[in-house]
TrEMBL record:
Organism this protein belongs to: Phialocephala subalpina
Family matches, as Gene3D superfamilies: NAD(P)-binding Rossmann-like Domain
SUPFAM superfamilies in the cross-refs: Formate/glycerate dehydrogenase catalytic domain-like, NAD(P)-binding Rossmann-fold domains
Full protein name: Related to D-lactate dehydrogenase
Annotated Pfam families: 2-Hacid_dh, 2-Hacid_dh_C
GO molecular function per UniProt: NAD binding; oxidoreductase activity, acting on the CH-OH group of donors, NAD or NADP as acceptor
Residues annotated as domain D-isomer specific 2-hydroxyacid dehydrogenase NAD-binding: 116-307
Domain D-isomer specific 2-hydroxyacid dehydrogenase catalytic: residue ranges: 53-337
Keywords: NAD, Oxidoreductase
InterPro entries: D-iso_2-hydroxyacid_DH_PdxB, D-isomer_2_OHA_DH_cat_dom, D-isomer_DH_CS, D-isomer_DH_NAD-bd, NAD(P)-bd_dom_sf
Length: 339
């Protein structure tokens, strides 16, 4: 839209990051809510009172069809993130609402966090920490090597399977290659073995041959529960899974069962089906909490609270890009358009 009068911008969840850095030339008003309970009624209230929003900024607060129907003045949803799975794109199209995001918002820090999670699993950092800080077990036994289990390999023996061939997957792959790991990019699950693209391996081959998996792909109807009981059963017994993509790509209940039955060696995640994740709503949190008291399971499931993105470079890019997206839209252009 070409701006004629002040646009009203509503920020729904400022708890994650400081507000965008707008140019002084943008004629606007801004209401910034630290957080918004993720129910339609409260979201609608925040977007309509004390005055209707023209632009909504969201990081994780859902924008549903009910919200859009109740907010006729809303014309742009600006995701302060790369992920847009919390926005009903079909409904946005129906109501003529444009959507933009921040491409590669935090890929640098997320890739590094993914590698940190990998090493926390492969080198049993969490478990060894727990055994060491008791202050008694190591002095009593003189060595804790027998607590390790099978003698671990090093990076040159890893076969890394990357699900997601975008910039984030590429960053993870480059770090792995620099550490002398073999890297293979998986083809989409729906693609037959005879139609695999150059530079990729079939989904089934990747599942069966990789020693470590990195998930760096968006959540979509195609990727929902992409890895579940069948895939976990077909993995190597020494396999590790690292998810820095979105909750729901790996079936959480199936993952807990695979770890319990030792079908795979370990898993780490920064993302969950329901967030914030806690004992009441997350099978992963419940399992990790229970296993923290069991030395045979401790450290085999490593969790972080969706903060892989948290870094100076990420914050700067989020603040400047969202501002640029909104300013371009106000001037009749659209940047980083999703819809």
């Amino acid at each position: 839209m070409a701006q004629k009068s002040p646009i009203h911008i509503v920020r729904l969840d400022a708890i994650h990051c400081p507000d965008p850095i707008f140019s002084s030339s943008l004629n606007h008003t801004l209401t910034s809510h630290l957080n918004t309970p993720p129910n339609d009624e409260t979201i609608i209230k925040h977007l309509t009172t004390p005055k209707p929003a023209n632009v909504a900024i969201t990081t994780r607060i859902p924008i549903t069809e009910k919200v859009l129907a109740a907010c006729p003045d809303l014309k742009l949803v600006a995701a302060m993130a790369i992920g847009i799975d919390m926005i009903d794109l079909a409904a946005c199209k129906k109501y003529g609402v444009q959507v933009c995001n921040v491409p590669a918002a935090s890929n640098e820090s997320v890739a590094e966090h993914a590698i940190a999670l990998f090493f926390s699993l492969r080198r049993q950092v969490v478990r060894m920490h727990g055994l060491t800080v008791t202050g008694a077990i190591w002095p009593e036994r003189m060595s804790l090597k027998d607590e390790w289990g099978e003698l671990p390999g090093t990076c040159r023996e890893e076969v890394v399977g990357v699900f997601g061939g975008g910039e984030l997957g590429g960053r993870v792959a480059n770090i792995c290659k620099a550490l002398n790991m073999k890297v293979q990019f998986s083809e989409r699950k729906s693609v037959s073995a005879s139609e695999v693209r150059e530079g990729r391996v079939s989904f089934d081959e990747c599942i069966k041959t990789s020693t470590a998996f990195f998930l760096t792909l968006p959540l979509s109807p195609e990727t929902l529960n992409m890895i579940s009981t069948e895939e976990l059963t077909n993995m190597r017994s020494d396999a590790l899974i690292v998810n820095v993509a979105r909750g729901g790509i790996v079936n959480e209940e199936a993952l807990v069962e695979a770890l319990k039955s030792r079908k795979i060696l370990g898993a780490a995640t920064d993302v969950y089906v329901e967030e914030p994740a806690g004992l009441k709503n997350s099978p992963l949190v419940r399992a990790a909490n229970e296993w923290s008291k069991d030395t045979s399971m401790s450290g085999r499931l490593v969790l972080s609270p969706h903060l892989a993105w948290w870094a100076k470079s990420s914050i700067q890019k989020l603040r400047t890009t969202v501002a640029s997206n909104i300013e371009a839209w106000a001037g009749g252009e659209i940047k980083n358009e999703v819809l």
